[in-house]
Write a structure and sequence with these properties.
- The chain is an alpha/beta fold and about 475 residues long.
- The chain folds into two domains: about 15-150, 3-Layer(aba) Sandwich (Leucine Aminopeptidase, subunit E, domain 1); about 175-485, 3-Layer(aba) Sandwich (Aminopeptidase), CATH 3.40.630.10.
- About 35% of the residues lie in helices and about 20% in strands.
- It is built from 13 helices and 19 strands.
- The chain has helices at about 5-10, 75-95, 110-125, 150-175, 185-200, 210-215, 215-225, 280-295, 340-355, 370-375, 385-400, 430-440, 475-485, and strands at about 15-20, 30-35, 55, 65-70, 100, 140-145, 200-205, 230-235, 250-260, 300-310, 320-325, 330, 360-365, 380, 400-405, 420-425, 450-455, 460, 470.
- The strands form four sheets. The protein has an eight-stranded mixed beta sheet with strand order 7-8-10-9-13-17-14-15, with helices on both faces. Strands 1-6-5-2-4-3 form a six-stranded mixed beta sheet. The chain has a three-stranded mixed beta sheet with strand order 11-12-16.
- Helix 11 links the parallel strand 14 and strand 15.
- Helix 5 (about 185-200) packs parallel to helix 8 and helix 7 runs antiparallel to helix 9 (about 340-355).
- It is elongated.
- Residues about 1-5 have low confidence and may be disordered.
- Bound molecules: zinc ion (ZN).
- Zinc ion binds near residues 259, 261, 336 and 338.
- Zinc ion (ZN) binds near residues 259 and 336.
Protein backbone atom coordinates (compact mmCIF):
# COMPACT_ATOMS: atom_id res chain seq x y z
CA UNK A 1 0.00 0.00 0.00
CA UNK A 2 1.31 3.43 -0.85
CA UNK A 3 2.07 6.08 1.72
CA UNK A 4 -0.43 8.44 0.17
CA UNK A 5 -3.44 6.18 0.59
CA UNK A 6 -2.38 5.42 4.16
CA UNK A 7 -2.62 9.09 4.95
CA UNK A 8 -6.22 9.07 3.80
CA UNK A 9 -7.07 6.01 5.87
CA UNK A 10 -5.69 7.35 9.11
CA UNK A 11 -7.23 10.78 8.91
CA UNK A 12 -10.00 11.98 11.17
CA UNK A 13 -12.10 15.13 10.72
CA UNK A 14 -14.69 16.28 13.20
CA UNK A 15 -18.16 16.78 11.74
CA UNK A 16 -19.10 19.53 14.22
CA UNK A 17 -17.96 23.10 13.60
CA UNK A 18 -18.53 25.76 16.24
CA UNK A 19 -18.23 29.48 15.52
CA UNK A 20 -18.02 32.40 17.94
CA UNK A 21 -19.86 35.61 17.12
CA UNK A 22 -19.75 35.17 13.40
CA UNK A 23 -22.74 35.97 11.35
CA UNK A 24 -24.71 32.76 11.03
CA UNK A 25 -25.35 31.51 7.56
CA UNK A 26 -29.00 31.53 6.76
CA UNK A 27 -31.24 29.67 7.00
CA UNK A 28 -30.92 28.69 10.65
CA UNK A 29 -32.58 25.38 11.47
CA UNK A 30 -32.64 25.63 15.24
CA UNK A 31 -32.46 28.18 18.03
CA UNK A 32 -30.97 26.29 20.99
CA UNK A 33 -31.47 27.48 24.56
CA UNK A 34 -30.01 26.07 27.76
CA UNK A 35 -32.08 25.93 30.93
CA UNK A 36 -32.06 24.39 34.38
CA UNK A 37 -34.71 21.75 34.76
CA UNK A 38 -37.13 20.99 37.59
CA UNK A 39 -37.90 17.63 39.15
CA UNK A 40 -41.61 17.68 38.38
CA UNK A 41 -42.06 19.78 35.27
CA UNK A 42 -45.43 21.27 34.40
CA UNK A 43 -46.43 21.63 30.75
CA UNK A 44 -43.91 23.85 28.98
CA UNK A 45 -41.25 23.36 31.65
CA UNK A 46 -38.18 21.22 31.21
CA UNK A 47 -37.31 18.22 33.37
CA UNK A 48 -34.21 17.65 35.47
CA UNK A 49 -32.73 14.93 33.30
CA UNK A 50 -29.49 16.33 31.84
CA UNK A 51 -29.63 16.63 28.06
CA UNK A 52 -33.39 16.30 27.83
CA UNK A 53 -34.62 18.42 24.92
CA UNK A 54 -37.98 20.18 24.54
CA UNK A 55 -38.62 21.40 21.03
CA UNK A 56 -41.29 23.18 19.08
CA UNK A 57 -41.55 24.89 15.70
CA UNK A 58 -41.07 28.64 15.55
CA UNK A 59 -41.94 30.70 12.48
CA UNK A 60 -40.46 29.91 9.04
CA UNK A 61 -39.61 26.27 9.75
CA UNK A 62 -37.25 27.27 12.50
CA UNK A 63 -37.18 25.04 15.57
CA UNK A 64 -36.77 26.26 19.11
CA UNK A 65 -35.16 23.72 21.40
CA UNK A 66 -34.61 23.96 25.14
CA UNK A 67 -31.89 21.75 26.57
CA UNK A 68 -31.91 20.72 30.22
CA UNK A 69 -28.74 21.16 32.26
CA UNK A 70 -30.35 19.31 35.15
CA UNK A 71 -31.06 20.90 38.51
CA UNK A 72 -29.41 24.27 39.13
CA UNK A 73 -27.76 23.10 42.39
CA UNK A 74 -26.24 20.04 40.74
CA UNK A 75 -24.58 21.78 37.80
CA UNK A 76 -21.03 20.51 37.22
CA UNK A 77 -18.61 19.53 34.45
CA UNK A 78 -20.34 16.17 33.94
CA UNK A 79 -23.75 17.79 33.40
CA UNK A 80 -22.44 20.35 30.91
CA UNK A 81 -20.41 17.79 28.97
CA UNK A 82 -23.33 15.41 28.76
CA UNK A 83 -25.76 18.20 27.80
CA UNK A 84 -23.39 19.28 25.01
CA UNK A 85 -23.21 15.73 23.69
CA UNK A 86 -26.96 15.30 23.67
CA UNK A 87 -27.31 18.54 21.70
CA UNK A 88 -25.08 17.32 18.89
CA UNK A 89 -26.62 13.82 18.94
CA UNK A 90 -30.04 15.46 18.60
CA UNK A 91 -28.90 17.79 15.78
CA UNK A 92 -27.42 14.81 13.99
CA UNK A 93 -30.49 12.66 14.46
CA UNK A 94 -32.85 15.30 13.08
CA UNK A 95 -30.44 16.47 10.36
CA UNK A 96 -30.24 19.99 11.71
CA UNK A 97 -27.10 21.37 10.12
CA UNK A 98 -27.16 25.03 11.18
CA UNK A 99 -28.06 26.25 14.63
CA UNK A 100 -27.56 29.08 17.06
CA UNK A 101 -26.69 28.13 20.62
CA UNK A 102 -27.59 30.81 23.17
CA UNK A 103 -25.27 30.48 26.15
CA UNK A 104 -25.48 33.92 27.77
CA UNK A 105 -28.31 33.08 30.12
CA UNK A 106 -26.28 30.52 32.06
CA UNK A 107 -23.85 32.31 34.36
CA UNK A 108 -21.93 29.14 35.22
CA UNK A 109 -20.56 29.27 31.70
CA UNK A 110 -18.33 32.20 32.71
CA UNK A 111 -16.10 29.51 34.17
CA UNK A 112 -13.61 28.31 31.51
CA UNK A 113 -13.73 24.67 32.70
CA UNK A 114 -17.53 24.62 32.59
CA UNK A 115 -17.69 26.20 29.13
CA UNK A 116 -14.93 23.86 27.95
CA UNK A 117 -16.92 20.85 29.15
CA UNK A 118 -19.98 22.00 27.18
CA UNK A 119 -17.84 22.35 24.05
CA UNK A 120 -16.24 18.94 24.60
CA UNK A 121 -19.70 17.39 24.74
CA UNK A 122 -20.73 19.13 21.51
CA UNK A 123 -17.67 17.76 19.72
CA UNK A 124 -17.90 14.27 21.19
CA UNK A 125 -21.62 13.63 20.85
CA UNK A 126 -21.80 13.62 17.07
CA UNK A 127 -19.11 10.97 16.61
CA UNK A 128 -19.95 7.99 14.41
CA UNK A 129 -17.75 5.36 12.82
CA UNK A 130 -19.23 5.13 9.36
CA UNK A 131 -16.30 5.42 6.98
CA UNK A 132 -16.37 1.71 6.17
CA UNK A 133 -19.99 1.88 4.99
CA UNK A 134 -20.60 2.28 1.29
CA UNK A 135 -20.92 5.95 0.55
CA UNK A 136 -18.36 6.96 3.15
CA UNK A 137 -18.98 8.98 6.23
CA UNK A 138 -22.66 9.56 6.78
CA UNK A 139 -22.33 12.18 9.50
CA UNK A 140 -23.26 15.57 8.03
CA UNK A 141 -21.39 18.67 8.94
CA UNK A 142 -23.07 20.43 11.84
CA UNK A 143 -22.51 24.18 12.21
CA UNK A 144 -23.20 25.70 15.60
CA UNK A 145 -23.03 29.48 16.03
CA UNK A 146 -22.56 30.72 19.58
CA UNK A 147 -24.60 33.61 20.83
CA UNK A 148 -22.63 34.81 23.84
CA UNK A 149 -21.89 38.00 25.73
CA UNK A 150 -18.52 36.61 26.88
CA UNK A 151 -15.38 38.06 25.38
CA UNK A 152 -14.96 36.46 21.95
CA UNK A 153 -11.23 35.89 22.25
CA UNK A 154 -11.60 34.08 25.55
CA UNK A 155 -14.39 31.87 24.19
CA UNK A 156 -12.34 31.19 21.08
CA UNK A 157 -9.38 29.87 23.07
CA UNK A 158 -11.59 27.62 25.24
CA UNK A 159 -13.26 26.38 22.08
CA UNK A 160 -9.94 25.68 20.41
CA UNK A 161 -8.73 23.68 23.41
CA UNK A 162 -11.90 21.57 23.40
CA UNK A 163 -11.66 21.05 19.65
CA UNK A 164 -8.06 19.81 19.76
CA UNK A 165 -8.72 17.57 22.75
CA UNK A 166 -11.85 15.95 21.33
CA UNK A 167 -10.32 15.57 17.90
CA UNK A 168 -7.71 13.37 19.62
CA UNK A 169 -10.48 11.45 21.40
CA UNK A 170 -12.38 10.91 18.16
CA UNK A 171 -9.21 9.87 16.36
CA UNK A 172 -8.63 7.29 19.09
CA UNK A 173 -12.24 6.09 18.70
CA UNK A 174 -11.80 5.85 14.92
CA UNK A 175 -8.57 3.87 15.03
CA UNK A 176 -9.87 1.54 17.74
CA UNK A 177 -12.89 0.73 15.56
CA UNK A 178 -10.70 -0.35 12.65
CA UNK A 179 -10.59 -4.16 12.61
CA UNK A 180 -7.52 -6.38 12.49
CA UNK A 181 -7.61 -6.84 8.72
CA UNK A 182 -6.97 -3.09 8.47
CA UNK A 183 -4.90 -2.27 11.54
CA UNK A 184 -2.15 -4.76 12.34
CA UNK A 185 1.16 -4.02 14.09
CA UNK A 186 2.81 -3.03 10.80
CA UNK A 187 0.02 -0.81 9.44
CA UNK A 188 -0.44 0.73 12.89
CA UNK A 189 3.21 1.70 12.91
CA UNK A 190 2.73 3.35 9.51
CA UNK A 191 -0.36 5.24 10.65
CA UNK A 192 1.47 6.45 13.74
CA UNK A 193 4.32 7.62 11.52
CA UNK A 194 1.87 9.74 9.54
CA UNK A 195 0.38 11.09 12.78
CA UNK A 196 3.90 11.95 13.97
CA UNK A 197 4.73 13.78 10.73
CA UNK A 198 1.55 15.82 10.92
CA UNK A 199 2.13 16.81 14.52
CA UNK A 200 5.87 17.38 14.40
CA UNK A 201 6.61 14.45 16.70
CA UNK A 202 9.77 12.39 16.56
CA UNK A 203 8.93 8.75 15.78
CA UNK A 204 11.06 5.61 16.05
CA UNK A 205 9.83 2.20 14.97
CA UNK A 206 11.51 -1.03 16.00
CA UNK A 207 10.68 -3.92 13.65
CA UNK A 208 11.17 -7.63 14.37
CA UNK A 209 14.86 -7.48 13.42
CA UNK A 210 15.54 -4.54 15.72
CA UNK A 211 13.53 -6.19 18.50
CA UNK A 212 15.53 -9.42 18.10
CA UNK A 213 18.77 -7.47 18.27
CA UNK A 214 17.73 -5.80 21.50
CA UNK A 215 16.40 -9.17 22.80
CA UNK A 216 12.89 -7.99 23.51
CA UNK A 217 11.61 -11.53 24.07
CA UNK A 218 8.28 -10.47 25.58
CA UNK A 219 6.84 -8.63 22.59
CA UNK A 220 8.54 -10.97 20.10
CA UNK A 221 7.04 -14.10 21.69
CA UNK A 222 3.52 -12.70 21.74
CA UNK A 223 3.71 -11.54 18.13
CA UNK A 224 5.60 -14.45 16.55
CA UNK A 225 2.42 -16.35 15.61
CA UNK A 226 1.16 -13.60 13.34
CA UNK A 227 1.85 -12.94 9.68
CA UNK A 228 2.34 -9.29 10.63
CA UNK A 229 5.19 -9.21 13.13
CA UNK A 230 5.35 -6.97 16.20
CA UNK A 231 6.43 -3.35 16.34
CA UNK A 232 7.61 -1.21 19.21
CA UNK A 233 6.61 2.35 18.34
CA UNK A 234 8.15 5.32 20.15
CA UNK A 235 6.86 8.89 19.90
CA UNK A 236 8.69 11.85 21.40
CA UNK A 237 7.24 15.25 22.17
CA UNK A 238 9.98 17.56 23.49
CA UNK A 239 7.68 19.92 25.42
CA UNK A 240 7.13 23.66 24.91
CA UNK A 241 9.63 25.27 24.86
CA UNK A 242 11.45 22.15 23.58
CA UNK A 243 13.75 20.34 26.00
CA UNK A 244 16.40 17.69 25.46
CA UNK A 245 13.83 15.10 26.59
CA UNK A 246 15.14 15.38 30.14
CA UNK A 247 12.76 13.77 32.62
CA UNK A 248 9.79 13.17 30.33
CA UNK A 249 6.51 11.67 31.42
CA UNK A 250 6.43 8.30 29.66
CA UNK A 251 3.10 6.88 28.54
CA UNK A 252 3.09 3.20 27.64
CA UNK A 253 0.21 1.59 25.76
CA UNK A 254 -0.77 -1.97 25.02
CA UNK A 255 -1.74 -2.41 21.37
CA UNK A 256 -2.68 -6.01 20.71
CA UNK A 257 -4.25 -5.42 17.30
CA UNK A 258 -6.18 -8.66 17.69
CA UNK A 259 -6.20 -11.04 20.62
CA UNK A 260 -7.35 -14.57 19.86
CA UNK A 261 -5.90 -15.66 23.21
CA UNK A 262 -3.36 -17.75 21.28
CA UNK A 263 -3.35 -21.47 22.20
CA UNK A 264 -5.18 -20.48 25.40
CA UNK A 265 -7.89 -19.68 22.91
CA UNK A 266 -10.83 -17.43 23.74
CA UNK A 267 -14.34 -18.82 23.23
CA UNK A 268 -16.70 -17.54 20.54
CA UNK A 269 -18.27 -14.93 22.81
CA UNK A 270 -15.10 -13.55 24.31
CA UNK A 271 -13.17 -13.36 21.06
CA UNK A 272 -15.61 -10.78 19.71
CA UNK A 273 -14.49 -7.17 19.88
CA UNK A 274 -10.88 -8.16 20.46
CA UNK A 275 -9.95 -5.49 17.94
CA UNK A 276 -10.38 -3.18 20.93
CA UNK A 277 -7.41 -4.83 22.65
CA UNK A 278 -5.25 -2.18 20.99
CA UNK A 279 -7.08 0.70 22.69
CA UNK A 280 -4.36 1.54 25.24
CA UNK A 281 -1.71 2.03 22.56
CA UNK A 282 -3.99 4.05 20.35
CA UNK A 283 -4.94 6.33 23.21
CA UNK A 284 -1.24 6.94 23.84
CA UNK A 285 -0.79 8.03 20.18
CA UNK A 286 -3.81 10.32 20.47
CA UNK A 287 -2.53 11.90 23.70
CA UNK A 288 0.80 12.65 22.01
CA UNK A 289 -1.11 14.40 19.21
CA UNK A 290 -3.09 16.44 21.77
CA UNK A 291 0.06 17.29 23.76
CA UNK A 292 1.84 18.55 20.65
CA UNK A 293 -1.14 20.54 19.33
CA UNK A 294 -1.92 22.07 22.71
CA UNK A 295 1.79 22.79 23.19
CA UNK A 296 1.88 21.28 26.64
CA UNK A 297 4.96 22.28 28.67
CA UNK A 298 6.01 18.80 29.77
CA UNK A 299 8.10 16.60 27.50
CA UNK A 300 6.20 13.39 26.84
CA UNK A 301 7.24 10.03 25.41
CA UNK A 302 4.69 7.58 24.07
CA UNK A 303 5.64 3.92 23.74
CA UNK A 304 3.23 1.64 21.92
CA UNK A 305 3.77 -2.10 22.13
CA UNK A 306 2.02 -3.52 19.05
CA UNK A 307 1.58 -7.24 18.38
CA UNK A 308 -1.10 -9.60 17.14
CA UNK A 309 -1.80 -12.66 19.30
CA UNK A 310 -2.56 -15.49 16.87
CA UNK A 311 -2.40 -19.26 16.50
CA UNK A 312 0.06 -20.73 13.99
CA UNK A 313 2.98 -23.18 13.87
CA UNK A 314 5.18 -20.24 14.94
CA UNK A 315 3.02 -19.12 17.84
CA UNK A 316 4.23 -19.29 21.43
CA UNK A 317 2.76 -21.94 23.74
CA UNK A 318 1.81 -22.47 27.36
CA UNK A 319 4.89 -23.77 29.28
CA UNK A 320 7.29 -21.80 27.07
CA UNK A 321 9.95 -19.96 29.05
CA UNK A 322 10.74 -16.59 27.51
CA UNK A 323 13.41 -14.02 28.32
CA UNK A 324 12.20 -10.43 28.37
CA UNK A 325 14.17 -7.30 27.48
CA UNK A 326 14.87 -6.83 31.21
CA UNK A 327 16.59 -10.23 31.37
CA UNK A 328 13.87 -11.63 33.65
CA UNK A 329 12.47 -14.99 32.58
CA UNK A 330 8.79 -15.80 32.41
CA UNK A 331 6.99 -19.11 32.32
CA UNK A 332 3.89 -18.92 30.11
CA UNK A 333 0.85 -20.19 31.97
CA UNK A 334 -1.67 -18.63 29.60
CA UNK A 335 -0.93 -17.30 26.12
CA UNK A 336 -3.98 -15.09 26.68
CA UNK A 337 -2.14 -13.13 29.40
CA UNK A 338 -0.06 -11.55 26.63
CA UNK A 339 -0.58 -7.84 27.35
CA UNK A 340 1.72 -7.88 30.36
CA UNK A 341 4.48 -9.52 28.28
CA UNK A 342 4.53 -6.81 25.62
CA UNK A 343 4.21 -4.13 28.30
CA UNK A 344 7.10 -5.61 30.30
CA UNK A 345 9.43 -4.93 27.36
CA UNK A 346 7.97 -1.47 26.74
CA UNK A 347 8.43 -0.54 30.42
CA UNK A 348 12.04 -1.76 30.32
CA UNK A 349 12.68 0.16 27.11
CA UNK A 350 11.37 3.33 28.80
CA UNK A 351 13.86 3.00 31.66
CA UNK A 352 16.80 1.98 29.47
CA UNK A 353 16.39 5.00 27.20
CA UNK A 354 14.96 7.81 29.34
CA UNK A 355 14.98 9.14 32.88
CA UNK A 356 11.22 9.21 33.35
CA UNK A 357 9.65 11.67 35.75
CA UNK A 358 6.79 9.18 35.83
CA UNK A 359 5.61 6.19 33.83
CA UNK A 360 1.93 5.58 33.21
CA UNK A 361 0.77 2.52 31.33
CA UNK A 362 -2.66 2.09 29.83
CA UNK A 363 -3.95 -1.35 28.87
CA UNK A 364 -7.05 -3.45 28.32
CA UNK A 365 -5.36 -5.93 30.60
CA UNK A 366 -7.80 -8.10 32.53
CA UNK A 367 -11.37 -9.32 32.49
CA UNK A 368 -11.09 -9.19 36.28
CA UNK A 369 -11.28 -5.39 36.29
CA UNK A 370 -14.69 -5.59 34.61
CA UNK A 371 -15.87 -7.93 37.37
CA UNK A 372 -14.50 -5.58 40.04
CA UNK A 373 -15.50 -2.16 38.69
CA UNK A 374 -17.90 -2.77 35.84
CA UNK A 375 -17.96 -0.36 32.92
CA UNK A 376 -17.82 2.89 34.87
CA UNK A 377 -14.32 3.16 36.29
CA UNK A 378 -10.90 1.97 35.19
CA UNK A 379 -8.63 0.20 37.67
CA UNK A 380 -5.64 2.20 38.92
CA UNK A 381 -2.58 0.63 40.49
CA UNK A 382 0.48 2.60 41.50
CA UNK A 383 3.66 2.63 43.55
CA UNK A 384 3.18 6.37 44.26
CA UNK A 385 0.39 7.97 46.29
CA UNK A 386 1.16 11.37 44.74
CA UNK A 387 0.88 10.11 41.17
CA UNK A 388 -2.21 8.04 41.99
CA UNK A 389 -4.01 11.00 43.51
CA UNK A 390 -3.09 13.38 40.65
CA UNK A 391 -4.49 10.85 38.17
CA UNK A 392 -7.61 10.36 40.26
CA UNK A 393 -8.25 14.14 40.29
CA UNK A 394 -7.89 14.29 36.49
CA UNK A 395 -10.21 11.29 36.22
CA UNK A 396 -12.88 13.08 38.24
CA UNK A 397 -12.54 16.28 36.22
CA UNK A 398 -12.80 14.53 32.87
CA UNK A 399 -15.39 11.89 33.86
CA UNK A 400 -12.82 9.23 32.96
CA UNK A 401 -12.93 7.94 36.48
CA UNK A 402 -10.40 5.72 38.22
CA UNK A 403 -10.49 3.51 41.30
CA UNK A 404 -7.33 2.46 43.03
CA UNK A 405 -6.61 -1.19 43.75
CA UNK A 406 -3.92 -2.39 46.18
CA UNK A 407 -0.50 -3.80 45.32
CA UNK A 408 0.59 -5.45 48.58
CA UNK A 409 3.85 -7.38 48.37
CA UNK A 410 2.08 -10.54 49.48
CA UNK A 411 0.29 -10.77 46.14
CA UNK A 412 3.63 -11.59 44.56
CA UNK A 413 3.47 -15.27 45.50
CA UNK A 414 0.71 -15.73 42.91
CA UNK A 415 3.15 -14.93 40.08
CA UNK A 416 6.30 -16.50 41.46
CA UNK A 417 7.61 -18.91 38.80
CA UNK A 418 8.30 -22.62 39.27
CA UNK A 419 10.85 -23.02 36.47
CA UNK A 420 11.40 -19.32 35.67
CA UNK A 421 11.51 -16.00 37.58
CA UNK A 422 7.83 -15.27 37.05
CA UNK A 423 4.67 -16.88 35.76
CA UNK A 424 2.46 -14.75 33.52
CA UNK A 425 -0.81 -15.66 35.20
CA UNK A 426 -1.86 -16.14 38.79
CA UNK A 427 -5.27 -17.62 38.21
CA UNK A 428 -8.64 -15.97 38.74
CA UNK A 429 -8.18 -14.57 42.23
CA UNK A 430 -7.44 -10.81 42.25
CA UNK A 431 -6.56 -11.09 38.58
CA UNK A 432 -6.43 -7.31 37.90
CA UNK A 433 -4.16 -6.77 40.88
CA UNK A 434 -1.98 -9.66 39.73
CA UNK A 435 -1.71 -7.97 36.32
CA UNK A 436 -0.52 -4.81 38.07
CA UNK A 437 1.79 -6.79 40.36
CA UNK A 438 3.37 -8.44 37.33
CA UNK A 439 4.07 -5.08 35.63
CA UNK A 440 5.47 -3.68 38.90
CA UNK A 441 8.32 -6.23 38.61
CA UNK A 442 9.50 -4.35 35.52
CA UNK A 443 9.61 -0.85 37.02
CA UNK A 444 12.33 0.45 39.37
CA UNK A 445 10.82 1.29 42.78
CA UNK A 446 12.11 4.89 42.73
CA UNK A 447 10.23 5.78 39.53
CA UNK A 448 6.64 6.90 40.14
CA UNK A 449 4.56 4.49 38.08
CA UNK A 450 0.87 3.91 37.53
CA UNK A 451 -0.96 1.18 35.68
CA UNK A 452 -4.46 1.88 34.37
CA UNK A 453 -6.52 -1.16 33.42
CA UNK A 454 -9.09 0.03 30.87
CA UNK A 455 -10.53 -3.38 29.93
CA UNK A 456 -13.99 -2.38 31.19
CA UNK A 457 -14.13 1.13 29.75
CA UNK A 458 -12.27 1.16 26.40
CA UNK A 459 -15.37 0.10 24.47
CA UNK A 460 -19.03 -0.12 25.31
CA UNK A 461 -21.76 -2.34 23.90
CA UNK A 462 -24.36 0.37 24.39
CA UNK A 463 -24.48 4.12 23.81
CA UNK A 464 -23.09 6.35 26.57
CA UNK A 465 -24.00 9.98 27.31
CA UNK A 466 -20.94 11.02 25.28
CA UNK A 467 -21.29 8.86 22.22
CA UNK A 468 -22.53 5.78 20.43
CA UNK A 469 -21.64 2.21 21.30
CA UNK A 470 -18.12 1.10 20.48
CA UNK A 471 -14.77 2.70 21.25
CA UNK A 472 -14.81 5.45 23.89
CA UNK A 473 -11.27 6.82 23.61
CA UNK A 474 -11.10 6.51 27.42
CA UNK A 475 -7.85 7.96 28.69
CA UNK A 476 -7.25 10.70 26.12
CA UNK A 477 -8.95 13.42 28.14
CA UNK A 478 -7.76 11.98 31.45
CA UNK A 479 -4.07 11.84 30.50
CA UNK A 480 -4.09 15.16 28.65
CA UNK A 481 -5.63 16.83 31.70
CA UNK A 482 -2.99 15.17 33.90
CA UNK A 483 -0.16 16.37 31.62
CA UNK A 484 -1.53 19.92 31.57
CA UNK A 485 -1.73 20.08 35.35
CA UNK A 486 1.63 18.69 36.52
ZN1 LIG B 1 -5.25 -11.84 25.96
Amino acid sequence: MEKKSLQNIGEYTNSVKIFVKQKAQLPIDVQLFLAFGVKEPRPGEIGAEVGQILSGVLEAHQTKAIVSLGEREKINLFALRNAGASISMWLNQFHKTTSILHISSIENLNDPDMLGALFEGLFLGSYTFSKRKTGGRKAKEINIYLDTSLEAQKVQSILEHARILTEAVNLARDWAHEPANIINPVSLSEWVQVLAQKNGLHCKIFDETALSEMQAGGILSVGQGSKTLPRLIVLEYPGTPPTQMTKPVVLVGKAITFDTGGYSLKDTTNIQNMKYDKSGGIVVAAVLQAAATLQIKKPVVGIIAAAENMISPQAYRPDDIITTLSGKTIEIISTDAEGRLVLADALTYAQQNYTPEAIIDLATLTGGVVVALGRLRAGLMSNSDTLASALTVSGDRTAERLWRLPLDDEYFHQIEGDDADLRNSGGREASSIIGGMFLKQFVADQIPWAHIDIAGVAASDKPSPLGPKGATGFGVRLLTDFLERI
